[in-house]
């Protein structure tokens, strides 16, 4: 019974580690795509003149996709992958203590991942609702700022923006992609944190099996 219990416990740990590693790996392509999409927001229709003359929506300068949902999430994903590695450095003398230490660190960095991707999610939503900064008949302005996001479903008023060409569609598509990417990151990090919390609350690492007890 003692050997069978150890085998079951080992399989549970290995399955949890593999699942956590897969989730962490998913964060990497999401982060890379966030960086690419955020960079594209600086160049409407591939033109660089608007970025150099600061004629872009102010929310692109928060670097939500490049820094927070991008670089910072890559760092978080790398650290989580290291923590999931079975051969990671032991911080305690006992295996049980080391597992608890690793689990706690995983929860902390998963929470940081939620914060970073959540920041990108919020800023992207605000940028989407505000609308693009463009040239209208009255000059450069936020043509749809007072619409409360209603312009998103009324394409007939998009012609207010005369320059850059198709900037409304450009912003809607790219901000929507950023919202999707960062939303997926939030979900993944929450799942990882939940998995690690369940290990602590359910006592996966606190179960001590005494030899000889049946």
UniProtKB/TrEMBL annotation:
Q: Which UniProt keywords apply?
A: Membrane, Transmembrane, Transmembrane helix
The protein's location, in the record's own words, is: Membrane
Cellular component GO terms, alphabetical: membrane
Q: How does it sit in the membrane?
A: Multi-pass membrane protein
What InterPro entries has UniProt attached to this entry? L6_membrane
Enumerate the transmembrane spans: 21-41, 61-83, 104-129, 172-191
Coiled-coil zones: none
Query: Which family, according to UniProt?
Result: Belongs to the L6 tetraspanin family.
Q: What protein am I looking at?
A: Transmembrane 4 L six family member 18
This chain's source organism reads Oryctolagus cuniculus (Rabbit)
Q: Where is the organism placed in the taxonomic lineage, from the top?
A: Eukaryota, Metazoa, Chordata, Craniata, Vertebrata
């Amino acid at each position: 019974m003692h050997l069978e219990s150890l085998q079951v416990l080992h399989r549970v740990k290995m399955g949890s580690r593999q699942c956590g590693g897969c989730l962490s790996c998913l964060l990497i392509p999401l982060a890379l795509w966030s960086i690419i999409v955020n960079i594209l927001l600086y160049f409407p229709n591939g033109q660089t003149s608007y970025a150099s003359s600061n004629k872009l929506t102010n929310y692109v300068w928060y670097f939500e996709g490049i820094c927070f949902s991008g670089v910072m999430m890559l760092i978080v994903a790398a650290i989580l992958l290291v923590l999931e590695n079975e051969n990671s450095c032991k911080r305690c003398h006992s295996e049980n203590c080391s597992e608890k230490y690793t689990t706690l660190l995983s929860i902390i960095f998963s929470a940081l991942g939620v914060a970073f991707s959540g920041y990108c999610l919020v800023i992207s939503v605000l940028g989407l609702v505000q609308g693009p900064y463009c040239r209208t008949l009255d000059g450069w302005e936020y043509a749809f700022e007072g619409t409360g996001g209603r312009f998103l479903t009324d394409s007939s008023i998009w012609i207010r923006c005369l320059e850059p060409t198709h900037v409304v569609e450009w912003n809607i598509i790219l901000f929507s992609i950023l919202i999707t990417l960062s939303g997926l990151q939030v979900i993944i990090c929450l799942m990882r944190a939940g998995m690690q919390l369940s290990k602590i609350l359910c006592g996966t690492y606190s179960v001590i099996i005494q030899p000889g007890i049946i």
